[in-house]
């Protein structure tokens, strides 16, 4: 990995994602023979002391542009698997490690290798395309889509292609060319006598003993010293909770603790065996032993495969997982239920104890004393008549801590179904694994039948008491899972009994059997269709071709520079912010004395140190740099510490003491804001037709309310600033991860009280933004600049993931209230809607978001009589801000919700209601802008056809009839996405193009590269206009020194407006060169440039675009706020597990009208990435706050964005052909945001599945599904006897088993 980039994802526990990982190659000497093990690990977790004797390879060591690019790096880049590039080194290392161990991996191995990696930009499909090129693929797989499909479709004389890259261009993977293990390390390992290692640090000593006796002596001497192997428990404690351990003992080198031994009755595994090793050992044992003996092994292996990620399992130890006794352990419940034994040792004695003994008495049990060491774990063989199972449900299927898990075992009297012994253990219920011992004792002697099942469920709910959770986790869901898991175990055992003796046992009905199968992650298949270039187009003209991202190779090699990769400046200081712990309070005092006395601390910065502007009034309420007299949200910056290192700054920041006096009211929710009439002004309203009269004439009316949660941007690169004072004239260089350098310049200049021409803001690239690096980045840059100004030193501010999530806000939580009038034939005649958005504590962009939610609320539908109002609520949460889609994903979801409500009421299908009410001819929107929906209808029809919607719907209906505990759903959703920013000056743009005398071209413009490929597209534009190869053109950086007053890169407008400016500059240059070219038409580019210079022709030109003529009159409720419209449609199919609420995305087909694509690879990647981000908003990403306004979900442990396991198994994207756009550069369209909303097709497919469940169970009452539609909400909606036991809600008197 790029070690400097790793900073941004420092985390811990089994939830740390491998955004950036490094590879270890370790030589171990087992049984006098050398074994080299290659494994990937999270750099943020692995203590450097544990790497003694190891060879560490970072992404730079794998390959670089200076030496040799590795095939993994090349293919990721050329398959377009990199957008912002920040996650790419981690992807490279995960794939590279797999290939070192398996040069021809299976698709399953590749998917598993990437389970610990997250990407926010790509939607994963292009990354997986690169992976497939390494996989061993059979001919059957090839035809099924496990290789990139390359075929041509001829339609209306237009060539449509799927070829985004060419496999034959890739260099082959040659394992013989890989790095060898360093001979000096091999010689060191062979020659050095094994001895204990001691490493002394500033606050702790690391001791690594080599034998058990040494370890026991150390534990006797230091009983409180933790044992560290994988550091997945101790590491996060030290990093996030400030726990200091003076002594740490690392037992990984002790042979007794690494044992792997098969015995007559089971398997003994050393306590420090990694979970990956345990997985391999169990896999081999299952393949070699009789099935009867391996039921425990199978259950443990099932849990291991979803425990953390491969990077975590590579370092985490079996013993550590057990001894930590964490409630979230997936292993402890099944190991305890299976009767595993722990082999302990203390000075002078060794002895076994049953593992369940440390859990059976609950939280207070201390069966293992501090002086005792867990040496090994014995996992028994299963016996005849014994059945064992393990279960888990998590917020995400892979690489997520469980909400609830379970391990269950039953032993029957020989030849009967009478329970002889029963063990049930749950995790996730209380603070540790818990045993349902009373239930188990009561059920001994019972027959395995429905009466036993009913009694068992009621006993379990009575015995396992779940306390109310502070973290927002609902207890009802956990209780439902507990009984659902037991029911699943009941069915599994029934089916196994039938297999054992079909004559005596009937097994379970066929329609229940699918409920026994968990969802598996498969390698997705995909097709991407786009219109090919005209045959007459010049081979040198790159426009319309799938060109690789210009920084793609550098992303993959780790050479791409982000803010924290910039070298340290002499005397540089690190800054850590101190934030409010109260939502609304007066600051009584700030005590910085202890913080100032900490090592390395240079100074503390407060509002008093701001030379000029501390509050920015862009509206009635200010945006604030430092809180001065009061705080208005948890996470507001009160002061900042600057120190000689990031560690020292953070340690000192924790010592700042702030005394508060709580103020009232504390407003956190939209409902509370409405109650207190707390809003930002102005409120907005749009109206057309006569709504009240229309309601009097309709056949039916429905009313409802939809709640949509917020969303964290979760850009890969957190907010980052480097402020460097120049030393004279009050000049300062700012290197910022931002979408808007001009606002950075403006705010910093105002805060320092200097003219803007003294502040130079530079942006090379941004590691993701999505709207989150506009105003917030300006405030944070001002914090760093004020510190740099006061100290006279360079100051670096890099927010941790937790602080970033706490401070910066995200997408607005949203409540939509609606009243809809319609006719029996499905025609919607009147809508009255009110939208409330949670703006947070300052205005930011909230009023604009509210406005856009009104302007775009109609989505694809003509509503003749409409009244809609929007309110931006002022609350005591961190202010929410711009996010991809900017209000449209929320208001349009409300619209689609009442569309489905009308369908339910009329008995017509949702797609029929959509078709009936869709715009069909040239007409006006509700704000009186002309609209031609031809391409909307084309997208809809093509999507219906390409997805085979109706035939699949019939198949799904048949599936649902035959399956009780699994249901499928399908939905198709249209989209009209207006493009524009509402005001002309917001879409102006400039460019600067230099031609040097060697013929090379330097291009710069006002757009920011944040993953959307804008620099690549601008080079394509310049290449076409100047008629030179792209290789001649270079882009350096976006800077306020070259492009002044540039507008933000936002609203999908970057390519549109900057492209026009670049085109203008190039045409100016070409016009100057034309006389020279005319005189020497056969000359070369270099000849012309040399001649131009000698003739004193200027080879530098600016280009300018005035912007689109957009305007909106809110007083009249009409205008032309948008320049054009994008259209699309998406069809998605899902499958849900009614017992757990889990779901799988089976297939998505997207058709998008994006005009004429400048770069189909980039554009399709933007559509897919936006769609998957939309899946996150609508189905899984959930922000949770305490009643005091404290954000609980402050990192990847608690906040789940989509991973590889969440994308559709079949993911097809088609670009609408023959749809030129007359308003934008080369007839293209700005598309970065539009695809996001189509993720709601998954939401409505889930709703369709739930509708099928409820219809089958006789539940006819109208139901509401809010967003995100999580597993918890899905399970509650699939009401049955188990939910009735927990929450008293059930429709029919059906037996518990059917």
TrEMBL record:
<keyword id="KW-0479">Metal-binding</keyword>
<dbReference type="Pfam" id="PF02738">
    <property type="entry name" value="MoCoBD_1"/>
</dbReference>
<keyword id="KW-0500">Molybdenum</keyword>
<dbReference type="Pfam" id="PF20256">
    <property type="entry name" value="MoCoBD_2"/>
</dbReference>
<dbReference type="InterPro" id="IPR037165">
    <property type="entry name" value="AldOxase/xan_DH_Mopterin-bd_sf"/>
</dbReference>
<dbReference type="InterPro" id="IPR002888">
    <property type="entry name" value="2Fe-2S-bd"/>
</dbReference>
<dbReference type="InterPro" id="IPR046867">
    <property type="entry name" value="AldOxase/xan_DH_MoCoBD2"/>
</dbReference>
<feature type="binding site">
    <location>
        <position position="1051"/>
    </location>
    <ligand>
        <name>Mo-molybdopterin</name>
    </ligand>
</feature>
<dbReference type="InterPro" id="IPR002346">
    <property type="entry name" value="Mopterin_DH_FAD-bd"/>
</dbReference>
<dbReference type="GO" id="GO:0071949">
    <property type="term" value="F:FAD binding"/>
</dbReference>
<dbReference type="Pfam" id="PF03450">
    <property type="entry name" value="CO_deh_flav_C"/>
</dbReference>
<feature type="active site" description="Proton acceptor">
    <location>
        <position position="1233"/>
    </location>
</feature>
<feature type="binding site">
    <location>
        <position position="84"/>
    </location>
    <ligand>
        <name>[2Fe-2S] cluster 2</name>
    </ligand>
</feature>
<feature type="binding site">
    <location>
        <position position="87"/>
    </location>
    <ligand>
        <name>[2Fe-2S] cluster 2</name>
    </ligand>
</feature>
<dbReference type="InterPro" id="IPR016167">
    <property type="entry name" value="FAD-bd_PCMH_sub1"/>
</dbReference>
<dbReference type="InterPro" id="IPR036683">
    <property type="entry name" value="CO_DH_flav_C_dom_sf"/>
</dbReference>
<keyword id="KW-0963">Cytoplasm</keyword>
<feature type="binding site">
    <location>
        <position position="739"/>
    </location>
    <ligand>
        <name>Mo-molybdopterin</name>
    </ligand>
</feature>
<dbReference type="GO" id="GO:0005506">
    <property type="term" value="F:iron ion binding"/>
</dbReference>
<keyword id="KW-0411">Iron-sulfur</keyword>
<feature type="binding site">
    <location>
        <position position="44"/>
    </location>
    <ligand>
        <name>[2Fe-2S] cluster 1</name>
    </ligand>
</feature>
<keyword id="KW-0274">FAD</keyword>
<comment type="similarity">
    <text>Belongs to the xanthine dehydrogenase family.</text>
</comment>
<protein>
    <submittedName>
        <fullName>Aldehyde oxidase 1</fullName>
    </submittedName>
</protein>
<dbReference type="GO" id="GO:0051287">
    <property type="term" value="F:NAD binding"/>
</dbReference>
<dbReference type="InterPro" id="IPR036318">
    <property type="entry name" value="FAD-bd_PCMH-like_sf"/>
</dbReference>
<comment type="subunit">
    <text>Homodimer.</text>
</comment>
<dbReference type="Pfam" id="PF01799">
    <property type="entry name" value="Fer2_2"/>
</dbReference>
<dbReference type="InterPro" id="IPR000674">
    <property type="entry name" value="Ald_Oxase/Xan_DH_a/b"/>
</dbReference>
<feature type="binding site">
    <location>
        <position position="374"/>
    </location>
    <ligand>
        <name>FAD</name>
    </ligand>
</feature>
<dbReference type="Pfam" id="PF01315">
    <property type="entry name" value="Ald_Xan_dh_C"/>
</dbReference>
<dbReference type="GO" id="GO:0051537">
    <property type="term" value="F:2 iron, 2 sulfur cluster binding"/>
</dbReference>
<feature type="domain" description="FAD-binding PCMH-type">
    <location>
        <begin position="199"/>
        <end position="384"/>
    </location>
</feature>
<dbReference type="GO" id="GO:0005737">
    <property type="term" value="C:cytoplasm"/>
</dbReference>
<keyword id="KW-0001">2Fe-2S</keyword>
<keyword id="KW-0560">Oxidoreductase</keyword>
<dbReference type="GO" id="GO:0016491">
    <property type="term" value="F:oxidoreductase activity"/>
</dbReference>
<keyword id="KW-0285">Flavoprotein</keyword>
<feature type="binding site">
    <location>
        <position position="392"/>
    </location>
    <ligand>
        <name>FAD</name>
    </ligand>
</feature>
<dbReference type="InterPro" id="IPR014313">
    <property type="entry name" value="Aldehyde_oxidase"/>
</dbReference>
<dbReference type="InterPro" id="IPR005107">
    <property type="entry name" value="CO_DH_flav_C"/>
</dbReference>
<feature type="binding site">
    <location>
        <position position="121"/>
    </location>
    <ligand>
        <name>[2Fe-2S] cluster 2</name>
    </ligand>
</feature>
């Amino acid at each position: 990995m790029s070690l400097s980039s790793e900073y941004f994802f420092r985390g811990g526990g089994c939830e740390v994602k491998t955004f950036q990982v490094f590879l270890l190659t370790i030589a171990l000497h087992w049984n006098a023979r050398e074994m080299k093990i290659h494994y990937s690990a999270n750099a943020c977790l692995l203590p450097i002391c544990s790497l003694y004797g190891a060879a560490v390879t970072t992404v730079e060591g794998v390959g670089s542009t200076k030496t040799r690019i590795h095939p993994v790096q090349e293919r990721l880049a050329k398959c377009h698997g990199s957008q912002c590039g920040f996650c790419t080194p981690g992807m490279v290392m995960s794939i590279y490690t797999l290939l070192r161990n398996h040069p021809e991996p299976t698709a399953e191995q590749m998917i598993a290798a990437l389970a610990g990696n997250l990407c926010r930009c790509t939607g994963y499909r292009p990354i997986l395309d690169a992976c497939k090129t390494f996989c061993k693929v059979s001919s059957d797989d090839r035809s099924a889509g496990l290789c990139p499909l390359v075929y041509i479709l001829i339609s209306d004389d237009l060539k449509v292609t799927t070829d985004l890259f060419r496999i034959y261009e890739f260099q082959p993977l040659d394992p013989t060319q890989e790095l060898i293990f360093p001979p000096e390390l091999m010689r060191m390992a062979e020659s050095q006598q094994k001895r204990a290692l001691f490493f002394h640090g500033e606050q702790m000593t690391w001791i690594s003993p080599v034998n058990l006796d040494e370890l026991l002596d150390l534990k006797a001497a230091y009983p409180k010293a933790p044992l560290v192997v994988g550091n997945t428990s101790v590491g996060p404690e030290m990093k996030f909770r400030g726990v200091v351990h003076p002594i740490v003992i690392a037992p990984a080198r002790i042979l007794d603790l690494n044992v792997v031994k098969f015995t007559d009755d089971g398997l003994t595994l050393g306590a420090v065996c990694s979970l990956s090793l345990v997985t391999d050992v169990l896999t081999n044992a299952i393949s070699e032993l009789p099935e009867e003996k391996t039921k425990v092994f199978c259950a443990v292996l099932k849990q291991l495969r979803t425990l953390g990620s491969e990077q975590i399992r590579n370092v985490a130890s079996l013993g550590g997982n057990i001894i930590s006794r964490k409630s979230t352990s997936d292993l402890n419940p099944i190991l305890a239920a299976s009767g595993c034994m722990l082999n302990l040792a203390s000075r002078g004695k060794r002895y076994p104890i049953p593992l369940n003994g440390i859990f059976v008495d609950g939280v207070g049990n201390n069966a293992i004393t501090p002086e005792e060491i867990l040496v090994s774990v014995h996992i028994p063989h299963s016996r005849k008549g014994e059945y064992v199972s393990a279960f888990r449900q998590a917020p995400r299927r892979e690489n997520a801590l469980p909400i609830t898990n379970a391990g269950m075992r039953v032993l029957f009297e020989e030849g009967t179904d009478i329970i002889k012994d029963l063990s049930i253990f749950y995790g996730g219920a209380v603070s540790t694994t818990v045993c349902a011992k009373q239930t188990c004792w009561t059920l001994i002697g019972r027959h395995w039948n429905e009466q036993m099942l009913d009694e068992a469920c009621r006993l379990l709910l009575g015995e396992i008491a779940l306390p109310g959770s502070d973290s927002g986790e609902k207890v009802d869901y956990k209780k439902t899972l507990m009984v659902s898991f037991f029911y699943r175990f009941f069915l599994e055992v029934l089916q196994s009994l039938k297999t054992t003796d079909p004559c005596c046992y009937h097994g379970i009905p066929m329609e229940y059997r699918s409920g026994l199968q968990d969802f598996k992650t498969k390698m997705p298949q995909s097709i991407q269709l786009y219109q090919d270039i005209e045959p007459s187009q010049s081979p040198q003209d790159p426009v319309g071709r799938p060109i690789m991202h210009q920084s793609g190779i550098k992303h993959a090699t780790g050479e791409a520079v982000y803010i924290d990769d910039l070298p340290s400046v002499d005397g540089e200081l690190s800054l850590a912010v101190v934030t409010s712990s109260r939502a609304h309070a007066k600051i009584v005092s700030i005590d910085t004395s202890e913080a100032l006395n900490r090592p390395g601390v240079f100074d503390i910065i407060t509002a008093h140190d701001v030379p000029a502007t501390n509050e920015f009034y862009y509206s009635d309420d200010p945006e604030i740099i430092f809180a001065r007299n009061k705080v208005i949200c948890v996470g507001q910056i009160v002061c900042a510490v600057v120190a000689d290192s990031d560690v020292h700054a953070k340690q000192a920041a924790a010592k700042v003491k702030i005394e508060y006096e709580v103020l009232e009211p504390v407003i956190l929710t939209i409902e509370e804001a409405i109650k207190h009439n707390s809003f930002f002004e102005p409120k907005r309203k749009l109206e057309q037709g006569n709504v009240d009269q229309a309601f009097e004439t309709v056949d039916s009316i429905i009313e409802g309310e939809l709640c949509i949660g917020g969303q964290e941007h979760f850009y890969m690169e957190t907010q980052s600033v480097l402020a460097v004072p120049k030393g004279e004239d009050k000049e300062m260089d700012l290197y910022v991860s931002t979408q808007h350098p001009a606002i950075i310049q403006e705010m910093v200049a105002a805060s320092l009280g200097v003219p803007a021409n003294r502040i130079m803001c530079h942006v090379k690239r941004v590691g993701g933004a999505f709207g989150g690096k506009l105003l917030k980045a300006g405030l944070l840059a001002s914090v760093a600049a004020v510190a740099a100004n006061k100290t006279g030193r360079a100051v670096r501010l890099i927010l941790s993931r937790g602080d970033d999530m706490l401070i910066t806000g995200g997408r607005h939580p949203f409540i939509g209230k609606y009243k809809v009038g319609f006719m029996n034939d499905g025609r919607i005649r009147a809508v009255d809607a009110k939208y409330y958005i949670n703006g947070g504590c300052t205005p930011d962009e909230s009023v604009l978001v509210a406005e856009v939610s009104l302007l775009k609320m109609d989505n694809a539908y003509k509503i003749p009589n409409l009244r809609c109002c929007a309110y931006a609520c002022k609350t005591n949460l961190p202010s929410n801000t711009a996010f991809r889609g900017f209000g449209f994903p929320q208001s349009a979801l409300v619209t689609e919700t009442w569309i489905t409500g009308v369908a339910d009421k009329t008995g017509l299908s949702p797609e029929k209601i959509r078709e009936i009410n869709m715009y069909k001819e040239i007409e006006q929107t509700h704000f009186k802008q002309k609209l031609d929906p031809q391409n909307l209808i084309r997208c809809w029809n093509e999507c219906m056809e390409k997805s085979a919607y109706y035939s699949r719907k019939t198949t799904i209906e048949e599936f649902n009839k035959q399956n009780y505990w699994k249901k499928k759903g399908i939905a198709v959703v249209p989209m009209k996405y207006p493009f524009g920013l509402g005001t002309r000056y917001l879409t102006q743009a400039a460019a600067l193009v230099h031609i040097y005398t060697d013929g090379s071209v330097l291009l710069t413009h006002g757009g920011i590269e944040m993953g959307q490929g804008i620099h690549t597209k601008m080079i394509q534009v310049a290449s076409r206009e100047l008629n030179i190869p792209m290789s001649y053109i270079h882009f350096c950086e976006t800077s306020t020194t070259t492009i002044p007053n540039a507008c933000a890169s936002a609203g999908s407008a970057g390519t549109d407006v900057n492209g026009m400016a670049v085109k203008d500059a190039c045409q100016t240059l070409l016009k100057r060169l034309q006389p020279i070219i005319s005189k020497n038409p056969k000359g070369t580019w270099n000849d012309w440039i040399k001649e131009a210079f000698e003739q004193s022709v200027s080879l530098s030109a600016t280009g300018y675009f005035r912007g689109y003529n957009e305007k909106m009159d809110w007083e009249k409720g009409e205008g032309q706020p948008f320049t054009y419209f994008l259209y699309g449609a998406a069809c998605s199919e899902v499958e849900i597990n009614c017992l757990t609420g889990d779901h799988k995305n089976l297939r998505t087909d997207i058709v998008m009208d994006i005009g004429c694509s400048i770069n189909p690879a980039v554009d399709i990647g933007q559509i897919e990435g936006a769609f998957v981000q939309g899946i996150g908003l609508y189905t899984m990403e959930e922000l949770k706050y305490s009643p005091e306004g404290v954000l609980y979900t402050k990192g990847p442990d608690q906040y789940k964005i989509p991973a590889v396991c969440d994308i559709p198994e079949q993911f097809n994207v088609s670009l609408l052909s023959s749809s030129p756009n007359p308003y934008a550069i080369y007839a293209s369209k700005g598309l970065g945001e539009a695809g996001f909303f189509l993720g709601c097709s998954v939401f409505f497919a889930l709703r369709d599945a739930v509708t099928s469940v409820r219809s089958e169970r006789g539940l006819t009452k109208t139901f509401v599904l809010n967003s995100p539609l999580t597993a918890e909400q899905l399970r509650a909606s699939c009401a049955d006897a188990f939910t009735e036991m927990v929450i008293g809600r059930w429709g029919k008197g059906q037996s518990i088993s059917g």
